[in-house]
Design a protein that fits this description.
With 274 residues, this protein is of the alpha/beta class. Helix content is 59%, strand content 7%. The termini are far apart. The mean pLDDT is 86. The protein binds zinc ion (ZN).
C-alpha cells in the first residue's frame, strides 16, 4: 500500500514539475518576445519584399484574397511575426518557404480579430509530408496538438485550403486546438477576455453538442460529437468554410463565435477577391 502511495505521489510530483517547467518556458518566451519585439500592428501598405509571400497567400488562402489591401498588409505582418517565433520541423518533406507561410496564415486567420494572435504556448510546428502514425494509435493522423508542439500533414493541410467549401480544414482545426490548449495549462496562457467569451461559446454550443452526442443530426461533421474539444475545432472549420449554412442553421452558435473570435467571415464574403 505504501509503495502504491509512493508511486502515485511521485508521478503526481513529476506531472507537477513538467507542468511548472512548461509554464516557466511559456512565460519566459513571452517576456523575451515582448521586450525585444514591438507589436507588428499598425497600418501601411504591403512592403515590396513581401511580393512573393503576398502572391502565395493570394493564390492559396481564399480568406486572405478576400481582405482589402490594408488588412492584407496587417495579415502579412502578423504572419511574418508568427513565423519568426516558431521553429518548423519537417518529417519526410523537403523544406519549402511556402510551407511555413501558409501554415502560419491558418493561425493568423483564426486569430485575426484577437490582440493575442501568436499562440505563444507553442514554439515548434512539425510538418509531415502526409498522414502519420502516433504511438499505439491504429489510425494515421492528419494533425494533432500536444505539449511538444503542433503537428500537421502537409498534404492534408494544403488540400484543406484547395477545397475551401467542404467544412474540412485541418489547418484551422489544429490551430483551433492550439488556441484553446493553453487554457488547460493555466489562466495566463489565454487572454482574459477570450476566456470569458469562451464560456459564452460553451453555453451556445452545449445544446448542439448534447444533441449530437445523443445521435441527433447537425450541420457540423459527426466528428464534432467525439468530445467537446473536437466540437470546438470542427465548429471553427464550419465557421470559416460554411458560414452561411452555420449562421442559418445555428444562429446562436454563429453569433457566439463571431463574438469570441471578433470577426465575421460573412462580411469578408461580400468583399470582391483581388
Ligand atoms: Zn481535433
Amino acid at each position: 500500500m505504501i509503495t502504491v502511495i509512493t508511486i502515485l505521489g511521485s508521478s503526481s510530483l513529476l506531472v507537477f514539475l513538467i507542468w511548472s517547467w512548461e509554464r516557466f518556458r511559456y512565460d519566459y518566451r513571452r517576456m523575451v518576445r515582448d521586450s525585444n519585439h514591438p507589436s507588428p500592428e499598425g497600418s501601411g501598405s504591403l512592403l515590396p519584399e513581401w511580393a512573393q509571400h503576398h502572391d502565395w497567400l493570394r493564390t492559396h488562402n481564399i480568406y486572405y484574397r478576400a481582405l482589402n489591401l490594408d488588412n492584407q498588409a496587417r495579415f502579412l505582418r502578423r504572419v511574418m511575426d508568427f513565423m519568426r517565433y516558431k521553429e518548423f520541423k519537417y518529417i519526410d518533406l523537403s523544406p519549402d518557404p511556402m510551407i511555413p507561410l501558409l501554415i502560419s496564415s491558418a493561425a493568423v486567420q483564426l486569430t485575426f480579430g484577437l490582440n493575442d494572435f501568436r499562440l505563444d504556448f507553442f514554439d515548434k510546428i512539425y510538418v509531415s509530408g502526409s498522414a502519420y502514425r502516433v504511438h499505439w494509435h491504429k489510425q494515421a493522423f492528419q494533425g494533432h496538438v500536444s505539449l511538444q508542439g503542433i503537428y500537421l500533414s502537409w498534404d492534408h493541410f494544403f488540400h484543406g485550403y484547395q477545397e475551401y467549401d467542404d467544412g474540412h480544414n485541418v489547418g484551422l482545426h489544429e490551430m483551433a486546438h492550439a488556441l484553446t490548449y493553453g487554457a488547460l495549462m493555466g489562466k495566463t496562457t489565454m487572454e482574459k477576455s477570450f476566456r470569458a467569451k469562451f464560456k459564452d461559446y460553451v453555453k451556445a454550443a452545449h445544446p448542439i453538442y448534447t444533441n449530437m452526442r445523443n445521435g441527433g443530426e447537425s450541420v457540423l461533421d459527426r466528428y464534432a460529437a467525439t468530445n467537446f474539444h473536437e466540437f470546438w475545432a470542427v465548429s471553427v472549420e464550419a465557421f470559416f468554410e460554411k458560414p452561411i449554412l452555420l449562421k442559418t442553421c445555428e444562429p446562436v452558435l454563429y453569433a457566439a463565435m463571431c463574438e469570441l473570435l471578433n470577426q465575421d467571415p460573412l462580411e469578408l464574403m461580400t468583399v470582391k477577391a483581388v
